[in-house]
Amino acid sequence: MIYFNKIRELTKGIPIELVDFSQPRDTARTPTQASSNFITKKEQGDWAENLILRAINESSKNYVAVKYGKSDDIIAGEEGFDTFYQEFQNELDTIGKRPDLLIFKKAEFKQDLGYDISRISHGQITDYVKRAVAGIEVRSSAFLIDRYYETMQKRTEKFVKIALETKNKILDDYQDILSQPSRSNYIDVLNGITEKTLNVTGFKVPGWRSNERFIQLNDLFKQLKTAIKETQKRDYLSITPKVEDIKVVYKWIEIFNVPHFYFQVFFDKVYGISFEQILQIISNPNNDGVIFSVESDTKNQNKTTIKIDSKSGTEVAYKIDEPNHESIRKEMDRGRLLFYVTFKGGTAYLDINNFKNILGIKGDF
Length: 365
Fold this sequence. Notes:
By secondary structure, the chain is of the alpha+beta class. The chain folds into 2 domains: 3-143 and 237-359, no CATH class; 147-232, no CATH class.
């Protein structure tokens, strides 16, 4: 089956409440001013993209990675940004969203175009892009994923222990208060709390203040509820396709018929997942709240983002040497100063077998 036809079939199973492919994408407002935090994130993203580009080109004898995604050094607030941003929006409506990188067989690589075709208009390179074996969208995260999972496991174990011990203390020490008919429902709630049910347990803290024992009991219910809430927090780092991007990635695939992938770069490892697998995951309601969630991302203008457990993907780089970093001073118009962090160097060590498997590459890499 042609790749795009497979993707189109998968989109039919995605609830319209999540992504409505029959509706045009929402019109984006032009940013008016960049912040230091925004530029630092952009620098980190550029570093991650370059990290993957170098890792592929330094590891492979038969394939070449090329920078393709639309980007520029210009930022909101600088002269010319409005024009650049509008051109970017027009391209999204015309061909969809370019992935950051394209992978070509070395025999198909055009030496005259080089390793960066991001500033070449799509009309000039359409046929060339169609020859790519894969497009990769690179995302970055300011975490060490192994350290995160180790910490979150210990944290969850801690709050599970607190919750169960608090529940038992309430039942053991305050049975006389809870046995009253008006309060007996709390005994049923407490008896229903187990390690397996903590993730779906909820109740209202009573608010009892009649005497010292009532106050103590009320405080224990507060402690129990706090511990339960801590066990219910999302405990995985995610690969994060924005809902609005699903449509424009789909449009790009429709035109170029090139397999598309997301790579999430952490500061110790890289995980990858295919766009096909993303669609399979989000079309299955049994996965909702288990290996993916849908959230409004406060760090990204409250845009609705699909957050998929990174470890649902494939570990494509098993180690990263961290980059050097330094502070940069940037002077904007009217004398406004921005200070941000830039990243240089670093090395990603690819797991060649995993990399080949996720991209479907046969033979020597």
